[in-house]
Amino acid sequence: MLELPKLRIGDLVAEVPIVQGGMAVKVSTAPLAAAVANEGGIGLIAGSGLTVEEIKKEIRRARELSTGIIGVNIMVAINEFKELVNASISEGIDLIVAGAGFSRDLFSLGKEGDVEIVPIVSSVKLAKISERLGASAIVVEGKEAGGHLGTDQPMKSLIEKIVDEVEIPVIAAGGIMDGQDIAEVLEMGADGVQMGSRFVASEECEVEDEFKELYMNATPEDGVVIDSPVGLPGRALRNEFLNKVEDDELDTSCDYLCLKKCSRRFCIMESLIKAQSGDMDQGLVFAGEKAYQLNEILPVKQIFENLIEEAKEYLGGNTKDD
Ligand SMILES: Cc1cc2nc3c(=O)[nH]c(=O)nc-3n(C[C@H](O)[C@H](O)[C@H](O)COP(=O)(O)O)c2cc1C
Description:
- The chain is 35% helix and 17% strand.
- By secondary structure, it is an alpha/beta fold.
- The chain folds into two domains: 7-205 and 295-315, Alpha-Beta Barrel (TIM Barrel), CATH 3.20.20; 209-291, no CATH class.
- Strand 3, helix 1 and strand 4 form a beta-alpha-beta unit.
């Protein structure tokens, strides 16, 4: 049987080329990141929405659970971006993944702190700029991804355009649900994958059961793209709250002031916290375009075993339909 390639990001070597995407607010926390790292992948704690003290605590909690590769994902769009980056560096984080905006400053902070920097990009231009500024790898995210989107282009069309334009590792994100999807993008020249939705439907993910149930019961028609107050489109699952967003019947009050620039259409922090804590009527439930394909909540260990087996089978010449 063929082996899956290792994923090298600067000095880091992941035995399995799977990154668990950072998912705010408090969707990807220490237990999930650590479980992924323990399987040889890369686990990311979502930093957006945490305070400096909370992110430090979360990193320590993950380190107690795993000696594997642990990173943070912090959205460039949030006010405390720099403080959270510095706090993560001071805790000795392995890598910082940053999306929802682009920060040139991040590269010098990474260099000073000896931390691998991995921007999330959705264009050839930003891929090349990232490489020139010193990125250790890039996540190339297509329109299928859950959460905030930087493009309306499918992930595979972006991968096709970008893989030959940069030397640094390319990690494909958006719509990767099973091992065949992984094998296909590796064959296209990607070095690894980042998966979000698949890991929401895991035992270790710390959202309330109602959140996972919404995933389990989703149909293709439930996937909706809304205008987020961040100023980007955001991919989520339909519920009462999204109906209100579409009808523009929203409470515009804000207790958090979490964003550098906010349209004040609704409070994104409040709606994400409500979702994480199980309020499926008033919460904003981010999910990838193919989340409806998920039908089982599994331990991370089992998810890895399935993904690796399916990917190897495909690379060995068999498809799902064989
Ligand atoms: C619930 C949820 C929250 C997310 N939050 C973030 C985030 O805070 N920062 C970020 O860069 N990406 C975020 N994402 C995107 C994921 O990290 C990942 O790139 C994406 O989900 C990949 O697509 P998939 O869900 O089809 O696997 C989020 C995705 C989901 C499903």
